[in-house]
């Protein structure tokens, strides 16, 4: 009996040692720090406007030309009046040109993807539109004789439109243009002020567009 008691005591001691050893181990903790959604500078897959997966590669130009996705066309409306938007003083003072493009458009579309991390992005464009000249014969109200006058005006079929879509949500966040449903200003600025991956599409007819993409100057 005495021997059995000693064995039982030894067994209890061993069990307590095992339990105490287990309590000394540290349980791994989970990293609950939220990841910065705009800190990823590597290429990533995004969902395009039609649901397809688009890979944004790293190239010399940050504006990657892509296949145009199906979209709505410009609906012509009565031509607006000439006006120029008020200039923004020193709008590009702290910006630098990221890329420049000259687009000759005749019922065609050109599109680019751009991963905007350092805001803002300024899309500045200036259009060249062909003119039409016509002559008319009018009667002089004083002399009663006829005389010929010449009239020159922009081609009424000229159109231009730039559309910016968020590839994550497939929502149009900005749209501007010339002719049709827009006014007939030859130069305009389009500002994108939130980070994201964007699909930028240019559409036009009978116009040449000189486009500049502006972004923040890099600091050293």
- What's the overall geometry? rod-shaped
Can you count the helices? 1
Helix content: 10-25%
The fraction of residues assigned to DSSP E strands is over 45%
Order of helices and strands: HEEEEEEEEEEE
What's the N-to-C terminus distance? Answer: 84 Å
Uncertain regions spanning at least 5 consecutive residues: 24-59, 72-85
The biggest sheet amounts to:
7 strands, antiparallel
Number of strands: 11
Count of separate structural domains = 1
Q: Strand pairing plus helix content: what structural class? A: mainly beta
Radius of gyration: 33 Å
Main features:
220 residues, mainly beta, single chain, 45% strand
Description:
The structure is a single chain. The protein has 220 residues and is mainly beta. The chain has one domain. The chain is 10% helix and 45% strand. The longest helix is centred in the N-terminal third of the chain and has 22 residues.
Quickly describe the structure.
Helix content is 10%, strand content 45%. With 220 residues, the protein is mainly β. The protein has one domain.
């Amino acid at each position: 009996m005495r021997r059995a008691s000693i064995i039982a005591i030894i067994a209890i001691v061993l069990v307590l040692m095992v339990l105490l050893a287990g309590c000394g181990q540290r349980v791994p903790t989970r990293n609950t720090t939220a990841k910065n959604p705009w800190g990823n500078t590597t290429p990533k897959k995004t969902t395009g406007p039609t649901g397809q997966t688009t890979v944004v590669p790293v190239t010399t130009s940050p504006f990657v030309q892509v296949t145009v996705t199906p979209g709505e066309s410009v609906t012509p409306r009565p031509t607006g009046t000439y006006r120029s938007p008020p200039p923004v003083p020193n709008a590009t003072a702290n910006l630098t040109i990221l890329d420049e493009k000259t687009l000759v458009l005749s019922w065609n579309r050109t599109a680019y993807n751009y991963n905007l991390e350092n805001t803002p992005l300024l899309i500045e464009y200036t259009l060249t539109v062909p003119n039409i000249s016509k002559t008319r014969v009018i009667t002089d109200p004083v002399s009663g004789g006829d005389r010929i006058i010449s009239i020159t005006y922009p081609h009424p079929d000229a159109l231009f439109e730039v559309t910016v879509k968020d590839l994550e949500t497939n929502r149009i966040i900005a749209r501007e243009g010339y002719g049709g449903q827009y006014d007939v200003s030859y130069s305009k600025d389009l500002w994108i002020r939130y980070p994201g991956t964007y699909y930028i599409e240019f559409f036009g007819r009978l116009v040449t567009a000189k486009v500049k993409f502006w972004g923040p100057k890099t600091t050293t």
